[in-house]
UniProtKB/TrEMBL annotation:
Substrates-to-products reaction catalysed: 6-phospho-D-glucono-1,5-lactone + H2O = 6-phospho-D-gluconate + H(+)
Gene: pgl
GO molecular function, one term: 6-phosphogluconolactonase activity
Native organism: Pyrinomonas methylaliphatogenes
Pfam family, one: Glucosamine_iso
Protein name from the UniProt record: 6-phosphogluconolactonase
Amino acid sequence: MTWKMNGRPIEIHPDLQAASRRAAELFVEIARQSIKRDERFDLALSGGSTPRLLYTLLGSEFSSEIDWNRTHLFWADERCVPPDDEESNYRMVHETLLARAPIPISNVHRMRGEEDPNRAAAEYEALLRAHFRGLPRFSLILLGMGADGHTASLFPYSPALDERERLTIATYVEKLKAMRLTLTLRSINNAAHVIFLVAGAEKAPALRAVFDEKTDARSIPAKLVAPTDGDLLWVVDRAAASLLAE
Ligand SMILES: O=C1O[C@H](COP(=O)(O)O)[C@@H](O)[C@H](O)[C@H]1O
């Protein structure tokens, strides 16, 4: 059941397993609709650990329901490390999804975390502009949220939140003392569908802040995600939702 809290649609599921299954069902439905309408499905995935189960489901049980030949896979963000590094978002998606699903390698467009970050961001932006012939309109972006409210690699109070022109940028994350590559809000908010998958009690304070009208959005960047002409849905587990008002 979908609820609306302060204008944001949210579904609360018993646990990560149930939330991941629901996200997989929605993924299949959106992929079908996109391919029917546009003959392709342009997808951006996040990293971290929460979506591991979802990607594993997509690569196994749900795989035969997805037309992988018409699916183009991009990344919402990447750590500035080689693709085989433990920290790499590409590596996580490879282990869970790409190693299982029959997606053509030419349809997999990773951010090059091993390169000079500014060059890698500029190259990814050029790739997006060429693929979408201008401003990207992803069919679906799957996002996560850190306990500090960051999403993709858009961190609290980062200058990256003010970027209005670029589609992809390299950004220094003070708390991690590291560079990251990320889609900007300009790219994210032009998507046709954005789904957040969030689980765990450690995310509960940040989730409450997203759904609280009064919190400063710059302190919780996930709150700045609001597709201008698209659908937003939060798929969360009960632990993450535990501090939301009734
Ligand atoms: O650093 C990152 O964290 C977020 C959240 O990850 P999670 O494991 O706490 O869900 C993730 O969405 C992002 O892609 C990643 O680079």
